[in-house]
């Protein structure tokens, strides 16, 4: 073993002070010159510009041990210090966008400080400010600060804003993506009308896309509905759907069904809206104008009325492709025949009237009044003629509007409501189709 002297020289020593002489420190001879500390190159340190590690810094103001507010939150291009060895005074619970826990770290409380007087001591202040520094993660969306001893949440920090701000300012960062998410279509389909008190199924289809440039990305689509008074919609609360791996050039269709109940007569609108947003804060969607789209669907709420096919007959025979079939539409008061609304049959707009099965009428298929006009008359009702004017109509049933298997036939149309508008009505009666 060879010996190499290492000399340590101390200057300015007073008389009687300790003097160090040259000391020879043995070391094992190196077989590879690169392993020789005397000749090995200096280590290369990664600077902040090229180090991909980042941290999230949250500065908080504490009014008390259990009350705190966020003063500031931002992403720092510096590696977070280790929390290994920190005492479990506070827990920093790091969460993703779905509330899943990414990690839980110990941390000092900003209220625990060292003071210096005659001696150094630890004190717990009533209020104060401090920073929490945690490692950056693309999945990071929030941080909860919990007082461990009290087992009480002190602060809930939404980190999506600061992380998105960082990615907007640093689009070339390897953790940041740019994707123009868009809702490109929303359409609704349902029956032509619904009777007050009944429900109708309305189907809504939405198309979402990733217009690039980066992808695939995970997104969240939120669908909501807003209805006019006179309609009740289920579900009424917004629904959120995960759209995983939305790739550029690969549109995704989202379908939803709603039950709509008419609670008041008339035409009422229901608006279906679809919005899309990135699931991760690190995905920047700079084009906000196409992030949402909506479709308005009109629901025609008809009042129920009383009709009498073949007045005076109880069997109500109907011959398909035969002659004209007489059908009486009765004028009634509210509550008569169990009907909720008063109805004046002489106000029917005859050009709107259609006859057929309810299924056919809901699809827009029916036959019109044969003469193009109504005939005011006091129809002999199932009970008796009541002395008021009803409407006698005539139809020539066809197989496209009524089938031999149908046991019921209906009249659909509109009547003048007295204010310049019209309201839909529907009445049905049993038939014997031949």
What does this entry look like structurally?
Keywords: Signal. Residues 1-28 form the signal peptide. This is CARDB domain-containing protein. It is a single chain. By secondary structure, the protein is mostly beta strands. It has 3 domains: 55-169, Immunoglobulin-like; 178-302, Immunoglobulins (Immunoglobulin-like), CATH 2.60.40; 305-433, Immunoglobulin-like. It is built from 2 helices and 30 strands. It has helices at 160-169, 358-362; strands at 3-6, 23-26, 55-62, 68-76, 90-95, 101-107, 112-116, 120-124, 128-135, 142-147, 152-158, 177-189, 194-195, 199-213, 217-227, 231-234, 239-246, 252-262, 266-278, 283-284, 292-304, 307-309, 317-318, 325-329, 348-356, 375-377, 390-395, 408-416, 422-430, 432-433. Strands 13, 15, 17, 19, 21, 25, 28 and 29 form an 8-stranded mixed sheet that branches. A 5-stranded mixed sheet has the order 16-18-14-12-20. A 4-stranded antiparallel sheet has the order 6-5-10-11. A hairpin with a 5-residue loop joins strand 5 (90-95) and strand 6. It is elongated, with a radius of gyration of 40 Å. The termini are far apart. Residues 1-31 and 43-51 have low confidence and may be disordered.
CATH topology of the largest domain: Immunoglobulin-like
Contiguous uncertain segments of 5+ residues: 1-31, 43-51
The largest sheet is: 8 strands, mixed
- Give me the number of helical elements: 2
Q: Helix coverage percent of residues?
A: under 10%
User: How large, in whole angstroms, is the Cα Rg?
Assistant: 40 Å
The backbone outline, from C-alpha atoms, is elongated
- Cα(first) to Cα(last) distance is 119 Å
In the CATH hierarchy, what is the architecture of the largest domain at level 2? Sandwich
Please report the total strand number as a whole number: 30
How would you classify the helix and strand content by structural class? Answer: mainly beta
Q: How many independent structural domains?
A: 3
Keywords: Signal
Signal peptide: 1-28
Protein name: CARDB domain-containing protein
């Amino acid at each position: 073993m060879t010996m190499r002297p290492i000399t340590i020289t101390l200057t300015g020593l007073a008389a009687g002070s300790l003097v160090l002489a040259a000391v020879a420190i043995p070391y094992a001879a190196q077989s590879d010159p690169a392993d020789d500390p005397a000749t090995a190159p200096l280590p290369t340190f990664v600077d902040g510009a090229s180090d991909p590690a980042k941290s999230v810094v949250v500065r908080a103001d504490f009014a008390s041990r259990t009350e705190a507010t966020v003063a500031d939150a931002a992403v720092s291009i510096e590696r977070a210090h280790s929390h290994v060895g920190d005492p479990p005074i506070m827990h920093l619970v790091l969460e993703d966008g779905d509330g899943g826990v990414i990690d839980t770290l110990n941390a000092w409380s900003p209220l625990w400080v060292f003071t210096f007087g005659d001696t150094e001591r630890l004190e717990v202040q009533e209020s104060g400010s401090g920073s929490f520094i945690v490692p950056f993660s693309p999945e990071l969306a929030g941080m909860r600060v919990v007082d461990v001893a009290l087992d009480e949440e002190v602060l809930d920090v939404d980190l999506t804003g600061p992380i998105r701000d960082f990615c907007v300012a640093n689009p070339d960062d390897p953790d940041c993506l740019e994707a123009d998410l868009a809702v490109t279509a929303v359409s609704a389909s349902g029956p032509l009308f619904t009777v007050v008190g009944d429900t109708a199924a309305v189907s809504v289809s939405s198309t979402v896309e990733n217009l690039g440039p980066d992808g695939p990305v995970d997104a969240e689509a939120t669908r909501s509905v807003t209805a006019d008074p006179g309609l009740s919609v289920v579900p009424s609360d917004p629904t959120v759907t995960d759209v995983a791996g939305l790739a550029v050039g690969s549109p995704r269709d989202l379908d939803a069904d709603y039950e709509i109940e008419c609670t008041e007569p008339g035409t009422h609108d229901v608006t279906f809206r679809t919005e899309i947003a990135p699931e991760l804060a690190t995905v920047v969607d700079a084009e906000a104008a196409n992030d949402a789209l909506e479709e308005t669907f009109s629901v025609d709420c008809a009042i129920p009325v009383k009709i009498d096919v073949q007045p005076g007959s109880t069997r109500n025979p109907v011959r398909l492709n035969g002659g004209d079939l007489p059908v009486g539409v009765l004028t009634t008061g509210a509550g008569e025949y169990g009907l909720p609304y008063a109805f004046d049959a002489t106000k029917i707009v005859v050009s709107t009237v259609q006859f057929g099965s309810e299924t056919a009428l809901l699809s827009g298929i029916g036959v019109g009044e044969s003469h193009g006009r109504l005939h005011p008359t006091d129809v002999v009702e199932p009970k008796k003629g009541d002395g008021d004017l009803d409407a006698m109509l005539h139809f020539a049933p066809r197989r496209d509007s009524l089938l031999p298997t149908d046991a019921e036939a209906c009249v659909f149309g509109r009547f003048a409501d007295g204010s310049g508008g019209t309201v839909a009505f529907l009445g049905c009666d049993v038939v014997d189709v031949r």
